Structures are given as C-alpha cells and as structure tokens.
Amino acid sequence: MEIKKVVIDGINIALIRNDKVLISDVQSALDTMATVQYEVDAKHIIIHKSLISEDFFDLKRYPSKVYKLQGKDCYCWRFLYVY
C-alpha cells in the first residue's frame, strides 16, 4: 500500500494506492484507517473504488458493518472513493 500525504487548507488527506483490493470487510477498513492515521496523521482518505470490494458495499447482506464502523468512533473520518 502506498500512502501519499496531501495538505489542503491545513487538512491532512491520505491518497491511497495499491495493486489489489485493500478493503473487503470491517476489519480491513479499520486496519487501513489505523495505518493512515499512524503514518500520515490523516482522517481524510481518497481511495480508488477498485481498492474496495463490491461486497463491502452490500449493506443488505451485512447490515452490521455500518454499526461496527460507527461504534469505533469512525464518524469523524471522511472517505472519498473515485472511479
């Protein structure tokens, strides 16, 4: 995983690049968030959609994902995924 730090108006933003799917479940999302915060001290992430598994977005199949992420103080994080 390659993490590039970008600062815009004093806000640290992590730009993530990788060769394969990076986020496939709640644990991998939390691991990515922890790595980003540790390495570049950012709570804003820009990530390409191809790095996130399609199953991760299937909330009907796994409705507990939303609650697990909210329960980990993740409400202050900002994600932007691009096509």
Automatic annotation (TrEMBL):
Tell me where on the tree of life, at the top rank, the source sits: Bacteria
Q: Which residues form the DUF4180 domain?
A: 10-60
Q: According to its UniProt record, what is one Pfam family this protein matches?
A: DUF4180
Q: What is this protein called?
A: Cytoplasmic protein
- The organism is Bacillus cereus VD184
